TrEMBL record:
NCBIfam families: PRK14013.1-3 (NF010613), PRK14013.2-2 (NF010616), PRK14013.2-6 (NF010620). Pfam families: DUF475. PANTHER family: MEMBRANE BOUND PREDICTED REDOX MODULATOR, SLL1022 PROTEIN. This is DUF475 domain-containing protein. Keywords: Membrane, Transmembrane, Transmembrane helix. The chain crosses the membrane at residues 12-33, 39-61, 82-112, 132-154, 175-195, 201-223, 230-251, 257-280, 301-319, 325-343.
Length: 362
């Protein structure tokens, strides 16, 4: 999986994504006809599914870059497991089961009742999901913030895109726990602005997000140690697999909640976001197999800057509404700029190499 496959075209990586798109949109159109019985209703649901897919892709492109960064160091066996089991968990777990669990916990009802509520009273279902946005944003935002800060506060990081900011952060990484301190300061600041009740909920949810990140890191370290001492490569792969699953869940929180602004139908949301998730999987495979991250040195930086901004946006969404389209476009623009900066760097390196050859020939 980690070896380059230059014979494959870019479009070939998206074959299954195209198939899922056709099936998903057809299913969305059928669902629109079944629920409304009109051509207009069918077209409306079809359009919403398409918009949700585009929204999910724009929100999760940075997720694909980070996934590829982690996957390239995993064994082929665990790469395959993440790209098969992982997509099942991503589509069915986060896009269907997660919204149901939120309603089950928030409304104090059983899973069957939650499904009936989603089918018969979508407005009430959407209201419960929206009311749960604050703790979800605090949890997911905190986890993503730790992911981004851990990347930048790294004393071993020697490639810097925005040097004036990244070099000091790399030096400050010598201070143990600086990322945790920054996150706790932000949690306390936002919780004090929100007020007593909402602030307490935000603080506790954020702390749970922090503890989840630390627990995954510790577990991954234990499994990696077990891999070295017991020579069990699969155990180390499981640590990375678990990290990627929690990371994908954190990316999905905001998209799932935001999707209810476009549709209150759980099944329409699952179709649209599921299509988008397949494209994220295809992009991940392409990035790993083509070695794109090593070829474009700043692409990874752009992804982590996008994660950093997304985490802060999730915090601010507890105070003011920020459209998910803006968040998605912001991340896409950052990665695009990072790609452009990488291309410019490669061209400069090639020009210097040519100059060196010319001087040597003279």
């Amino acid at each position: 999986m980690s070896t380059s496959t230059p014979h494959k075209t870019v479009l070939s990586y998206f074959t299954w994504s195209f198939i899922v798109t056709v099936v998903g949109l057809a299913l969305g159109a059928w669902l629109g006809w079944q629920t409304t019985g009109t051509i207009g209703g069918m077209a409306s649901i079809f359009f919403i599914c398409a918009v949700l897919a585009v929204l999910e892709i724009s929100l999760s492109f940075d997720n694909a870059v980070v996934n590829a960064n982690k996957l390239k160091d995993m064994t082929p066996e665990w790469q395959h497991r993440f790209l098969t089991w992982g997509i099942i968990i991503a589509v069915f777990g986060m896009r269907i089961i997660f919204p149901l669990l939120v309603v089950v916990i928030a409304a104090g009802i059983g899973p069957i009742e939650a499904i009936v509520l989603a089918a018969s009273k979508p407005e009430e279902y959407a209201r419960i999901m929206t009311d749960a946005h604050l703790p979800i944003a605090a949890f997911g935002g905190t986890f993503l913030l730790m992911v981004a800060l851990t990347y930048f506060f790294n004393s071993d990081k020697d490639v810097h895109w925005f040097g004036p900011l990244e070099r000091p952060m790399a030096r400050l990484a010598e201070i143990k726990g600086i990322e945790v301190a920054i996150v706790l300061i932000l949690l306390l600041t936002f919780s004090s602005v929100l007020g007593e009740v909402e602030g307490t909920t935000f603080l506790y949810s954020g702390i749970y997000g922090l503890l989840t990140f630390l627990a995954v890191e510790v577990l991954g370290g234990i499994l990696d140690a077990s891999q070295k001492t017991l020579n069990a490569a699969a155990q180390g792969g499981f640590g990375a697999f678990l990290y990627l699953e929690v990371l994908d869940a954190s990316f999905s929180f905001d998209g799932v909640i935001g999707a209810f602004a476009l549709s209150q139908n759980l099944f329409v949301i699952a179709i649209g976001l599921g299509i988008g998730a397949m494209y994220v999987r295809s992009m991940t495979i392409m990035l790993v197999e083509k070695g794109t991250l090593s070829e474009y040195r700043y692409l990874e930086h752009g992804a982590f800057y996008a994660i950093l901004i997304l985490s802060v946006v999730m915090y601010f969404q507890t105070l003011v509404h920020i459209p998910e389209v803006i968040t998605g476009l912001g991340g896409a623009v950052l990665i695009g700029v990072a790609f452009w900066a990488s291309v410019r760097h490669n061209r400069r390196e090639e020009a210097h190499a040519e100059e060196g050859k010319t001087v040597a020939a003279e």
